[in-house]
Amino acid sequence: MYITCLDMEGVLVPEIWIAFSEATGIPELRRTTRDEPDYDKLMRFRLDLLKERGLGLKEIQDTIATIDPLPGAKEFLDELRSFTQVIILSDTFEQFAQPLMKKLGWPTLFCNTLEVAPDGVITGFQMRCPQSKLTTVKALQSMGYDTIAAGDSFNDLGMIQASKAGFLFKSTDQIKADHPELPAYEEFGDLLAAIRKAMA
């Protein structure tokens, strides 16, 4: 029995923080998990920047409302879900993800949550569990599932490497160079074919 685990940002939808960086004109917010392996450090950097600029949850949600899934992502997901269970494992936050999940047809999402003050200031964040993607894949395996995983960033490597089959998708040249053992794809059709083959 297989479960396919997918990253969300950069794989199915554009990077939220990059879109917000462009909307606000704050270039430092372009930094993502493709650039920074330490997620806790990255989030604290982001929250400090938001506080400095007086920006809160509403401003980020306004940007998210303008984001659509990557071209072909919903069709890919629909086809994938026709022959395997799919869970999206993301280090994003439930306050960000809901409108994007609606546009993707409400797939199952495991993510984290923000701590938000009554005035909308983001004061902190709660991770669902340590190393959430790898921990979740190992938990699924402990229940008798074989996992297949795909993602683009440093924080996806654990779940990709721990799975029966794992793929880089729309990743960076650096991550691909560092991990030549991992098949890397750029197109949804190629990833779909690789997943089908892995399950055969």
**Rg, please?**
17 Å
Number of alpha- plus pi-helical segments: 9
Biggest sheet architecture: 7 strands, mixed
For the record, the CATH class of the largest domain is: Alpha Beta
Explain this structure.
The protein is of the alpha/beta class and 200 residues long. It has 2 domains: 2-13 and 70-112 and 126-199, Rossmann fold; 16-64, thrh gene product, domain 2, CATH 3.90.1470.10. The protein is built from 9 helices and 7 strands. It has a 7-stranded mixed sheet, sandwiched between helices. The longest helix has 15 residues, at 39-53. It is globular and about 50 Å long. The mean pLDDT is 95.
Keywords:
200 residues, alpha/beta, Rossmann fold, thrh gene product, domain 2, 20% strand
Can you lay out the helices and strands and say which pair or pack?
Elements: E1 2-6, H1 16-24, H2 39-53, H3 57-64, H4 73-81, E2 85-93, H5 94-103, E3 108-116, E4 122-126, H6 132-142, E5 146-151, H7 157-162, E6 165-169, H8 173-178, E7 184-185, H9 188-199
Parallel strand pairs: 1-2, 1-5, 2-3, 5-6, 6-7
Antiparallel strand pairs: 3-4
